[in-house]
Amino acid sequence: METPLRKLVGEKTAKALASHLDLHTAGDLLYHFPRRYDERGEHTDIRSLEVGEQVTVLGQVQRTAVRPMRQRRGNLLEVTVGDGSGGVLTLTFFGNQAWRERDLKPGRWGMFAGKVTEFRGKRQLNGPEYVLLGDGSGDGEPGSGGGEASEEIEEFAGALIPVYPAAAAVPTWVIARCVRVVVDTVTPPEDPLPATLRATRNLVGLATALREIHRPASKEELYRARHRLKWDEAFALQLTLVQRKHRASAWPAQPRPRREDGLLTAFDARLPYELTAGQRAVGEEVAADLGTAHPMHRLLQGEVGSGKTVCALRAMLQVVDAGGQAALLAPTEVLAAQHYRGMLDLLGPLGRAGELDGDPDGTRLALVTGSLGAAARRRALETVAAGEAGIVVGTHALLYEGVDFADLGLVVVDEQHRFGVEQRDALRAKAEQPPHVLVMTATPIPRTVAMTVYGDLEISTLSQLPRGRSPIASHVVPAAEKPAYLDRAWRRLREEVAAGHQAYVVCPRIGDQSATAEEVGAIGEDGRRPPLAVAEVAPLLADGPLHGLRIGVLHGRLPADEKDSVMRTFAAGELDVLVATTVIEVGVDVPNATVMIVLDADRFGVSQLHQLRGRVGRGSAAGLCLLVTEAVEETPARERLDAVASTTDGFRLAELDLEQRREGDVLGATQSGRRSHLRLLSLLRDSELIRDARVEAVALVEEDPELDRHPALAASVAALVDEERAEYLEKG
């Protein structure tokens, strides 16, 4: 498998495979799986080809025509090929190439590769590479029509023809020829899967799977090969996660059992509302975890506004009752400051021990962020080091810059900033034993993603919203097709402000305040104008449709104290409208805000839009989210927005998001420069297979935690999920 390709396919071809497709060894090539399989008589759907695409088409020659060229000497050969669906494509060859006309006889089937262009409304390929299939393979030049290339692919002509991810310099049939050499000469690797597992799960051997995925004699063979190779990917991932979970469960931790007469009981008694059934159930799970002698590693997921923060605060109070401290890490200073104020409000006198109006049996809260003044920071750090502050809120700076805890018992990580290797090491240094960890996210995670990406954590889900939360209506505003709808959106915002409410206007970019109107609307090379920006939109709104309203601006480039000041002013009702970037996506809680207008909504992801609209409807008045777009009907961008507007079910939207994103992004395949072997597994389509792999991984790790009795399997897992990728999975 490690044999260099130059020893197998020659120096020139190996160099092309390495430089264009990053394939260097026999193993690399065997794991370069076909993108699809064509059959003669089945169409490729020529009508769906897009101009500019590099394509490989299976088609049948319908007719040929030779005519003299106008601008220069010589003839032009035009060949029309069809795909059986009614779609046709013109192949054009310049110069006197009579042998091609003899080669490309009507009725012949071939594979044609090139870049799609358009001439007078017709799709065409100029001078494409091609290989002909079947009888009378012609006497063309090797690799560019008939001859040697045809021989190489002849064995596929009656069955399934693999079409590989290719490059202009390395067409699919060259890859097929190289794969054939490798399959015929390289000794297949030892099968890493235990024989009993293969038998139980009815899986073919690895050597058979690698041969049949490239040269399937039937669809049944192809299915078996793909199923086995998907198993390898799913099993490697699950073994990695189950092993990590197993190792973590062996670490010692200080138990923090619940005390019946402590702060938590007093806090529950003063809550102005009843906990939902979901919050109570999550509370029981977390309380049980905290009481054990091993560190809790739990993910708490719940819709925006489902009450995760209250669950986290109750867990923190349980730890404080048991003599420890708890830290909440937020992704931004704005959010850290907001959590701090929100917790102070919820705790009341219980969070102000040592102050005149504080409860002597309570605790103290400390806020530690990078922008604190020197004196305030020193005071905060002293209360943390002395153990006087039972609850500490801050950004990830908490883990590093000279912050010492007296007895750190619980870390709550807010908003899917997963707990990475460096953070875990930094925290271990701050606690005599690893602390308990609770990770919170408001982005609903489809079950298979949770199992695959967060598989080393226990998962709790809050699915119901607390009483008193209002529904959010969402509508798409098609600004290009119906400009009057956008005017109505601004009027609707003014109506909400007139009724005493507040609004958000969200833009995809921060922008430059000094930009001219021409620069703002300039069309880029891709034919689109730049995304709308806060710095440019805010003054236009102030002078135009929102004239006379009190408008504030919030984005990530503002100094921390200014961001905090803007948020406080908005929360206090002293601003009517906040024009912001996605800095408001997470955790911003202003119950009086009832309307949100998202400009260039098609430039945001599904999860982002769902998160953003969760900022409105947080009080007793209904929320309204207007998604403004220039995307026209029936485009993917518009369909995505229509889906967001049609449902507030975060789990349904999370699956839609996954369908539309490359799944490799979820698995970390694109996060490093190294190639990933995670190629076939689909988190959506293969959910059952992933569940089965999880079951087998748990069973195997229980009996052989470090895979000592399965060295080939351990090596296979290391190859499929390298250290960099394992670390990515851990950080999320």
UniProtKB/TrEMBL annotation:
Keyword DNA repair part of the UniProt annotation: yes
Gene3D superfamilies the record matches: Nucleic acid-binding proteins, P-loop containing nucleotide triphosphate hydrolases
Highest taxon, organism lineage: Bacteria
Domain Helicase C-terminal intervals: 485-659
Annotated SUPFAM superfamilies: Nucleic acid-binding proteins, P-loop containing nucleoside triphosphate hydrolases
Single annotated GO MF: helicase activity
Pfam families xrefs: DEAD (PF00270), Helicase_C (PF00271), RecG_dom3_C (PF19833), RecG_wedge (PF17191)
Domain Helicase ATP-binding: 289-462
Keyword flag Secreted: no
Alphabetized UniProt keyword annotations: ATP-binding, DNA damage, DNA repair, DNA-binding, Helicase, Hydrolase, Nucleotide-binding
Name of the featured protein: Probable DNA 3'-5' helicase RecG
